[in-house]
Structure formats: C-alpha cells, structure tokens
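Hi V.,

You were right to ask for the full record rather than a summary. Here it is.
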Amino acid sequence: MREYELMYIARPNLEPEQYEALQERVTTLIARGGGETTGVDVWGKRRLGYPIKHETDGHYVVLTFKGGEELVRELDRVLSITDEFIRFKTFRIDHRK
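Predicted structure:
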C-alpha cells in the first residue's frame, strides 16, 4: 500500500454536522476500499484564491491515508459527483530523499 494525501474544499454554507458527515463519508470510502486513514487536518473556512463554482470561501480538509490505486480512482469518482465538494486533489507521498 502506498501513502496518499487528499485535500478537499467543501462548500462554505454547510452546517457543522454536514462537514463531519462529509469527512465520515470519505473515511468510510477509504476503509471500504481496503485503505487506512492515518491523519486528518481540518483547516476550516478560508478565502479561495479565486472564485470556484461561484464560491469565494471554502472549508478545507487535508486527509492522509494508505491504499492502492483502485481506491484512489474510486475516491476521485465519488468526490467528483458529490455536489458538496468544490475541489479536491490526491497526491502520492514519496518518502525517498
């Protein structure tokens, strides 16, 4: 299994319970896909560098996990069709120096 970092930006007008539900949904997808969540860093609401989907603010979350390429593809598929996410990006963490 490789280590990945997922950063996503959710719409700013959601309730706190909805942010927790989104985070739980992502961690559940990772667990169901055979992965393991290793860390969650919630940055909270921040101003975007430019408007995205008519939004000027967003709720930022950085999540690290271990998993395979199939899991990453499934996360990309689900997050891209979920309206609450404005943007997301998955990076593979390379520990070589």
